Amino acid sequence: MEWIYLSPHLDDVALSCGGLVWEQAQAGQRVCILTICAGDPSLGEFSALAKSLHARWNTGARAATQRRQEDLASCRLMGATARHLAIPDCIYRRGGEEDQPLYTAEESIFRRLHPAEGDLVRELVAILAASLPAEAQVVSPLALGDHVDHQLTRQGAENLGRRLWYYADYPYVLKNARQLERLEREGWEWQRFPLLARSVGVWQQAIAAHTSQISTFWSSLESMAADIRTYRQSEKGIRLWRSPAG
Questions:
Q1: Cα-flanking dihedrals φ and ψ of residue 99, to 5°?
Q2: What was the pLDDT predicted at 235?
Q3: How confident is the model at residue 46 (pLDDT cuts 50, 70, 90)?
Q4: Rounded mean pLDDT, 57-64
Q5: b/e per residue 179-205 (b: at least 16 CB within 10 A)
Q6: DSSP structure class, residue 31
Q7: With contact defined as beta carbons under 8 Å apart, do 204 and 225 qualify?
Q8: Angle at CA 38, nearest 5°, toward 155 and 15?
Q9: Which of 5, 35, 216, 225 has a CA between 20 and 30 Å from the CA of residue 77?
Q10: Is the pLDDT at 203 greater than 90, yes or no?
Q11: Average of per-residue pLDDT across 4-16
Q12: For residue 186, what is the domain's CATH number?
């Protein structure tokens, strides 16, 4: 069996289901992590938002390059192959008549996709349709938390017209548990994958490999590791979701 996980950014699959990816690879299944927004920034001056994130990540202007390197290391730990699309992160995307940054404040990336990005969704659908084997099990983010790049990824996947698996976006799921409750009421199904203690350790290591991103959610690697243990215990593993058949 081949599993293809769609990751909006270069850390989302590691964050959300790194232990499961490792167990699938250990069981002899082929696993690929396809990151959607992994491209280099478009030309032009960085927005204030991008500059502030570069400072937080301690990467400077080479953030995209460093993050791809981190992802390769993380995927090796999980036993997965890595593929990176050339679409830039939303903090770099530009549009409109004056070709200005589309997302200029942190709150703007947790709203609907910018109206100028309709063509980008269609572009992504075409890329995915041409590159995803028909027999592969495709796993999309649920886009909990409404990050625009997570929305882009889910919309692109759902426009393929194939039945998908979905993962809960960690850590956004922690503040959006009611969305999962709504899915259950709507007839969505889920399958729980219990994890071995060793799998949790690899999960933590895979997240830690994304060195630049730890400060986005945690004050230290120790607090990250503790939160992952707690999350695994609360979920009794990792759940993947499926929409009602039809």
A1: 50, 55
A2: 96
A3: very high
A4: 96
A5: bbeebeeeeeeeeebebeeebbbbbbb
A6: E
A7: yes
A8: 75
A9: 216
A10: yes
A11: 98
A12: 3.40.50.10320
Q: What pLDDT score was predicted for residue 246?
A: 52
For residues 223-230, give the mean pLDDT. Answer: 98
Give every CB contact of residue 145 below 8 A, 6+ residues apart in sequence: 110, 169, 172, 173, 175, 176
| pLDDT at residue 189, as a whole number | 96
Helices (H), the chain: 12-26, 48-57, 63-78, 118-131, 148-158, 177-185, 197-208, 214-217, 221-235
- Whether 78 and 25 have beta carbons less than 8 Å apart is answered as yes
Q: Is the dihedral of CA 229, 26, 128, 66 positive or negative?
A: positive
Residues 6+ apart with CB under 8 A from 119: none
Report residue 172 as tokens.
Answer: 């956004």
- Pick from 131, 148, 137, 142: nearest CA to 85: 131
Using pLDDT thresholds of 50, 70 and 90, give the confidence band for residue 245.
confident
Structural domain including 59 reads 2-242
Number of structural domains (the chain) is 1
Q: What was the pLDDT predicted at 43?
A: 80
pLDDT tens-digit map of 93-121: 999 888 899 999 999 999 999 999 999 99
Sequence-distant (6+) residues with CB within 8 A of 18 are: 74, 78, 202, 203, 204, 206, 207
CA distance 212 to 66: 8
DSSP-assigned states of every residue in 150-191: HHHHHHHHHTT-S--EEE--TTGGGG-HHHHHHHHHTT-EEE
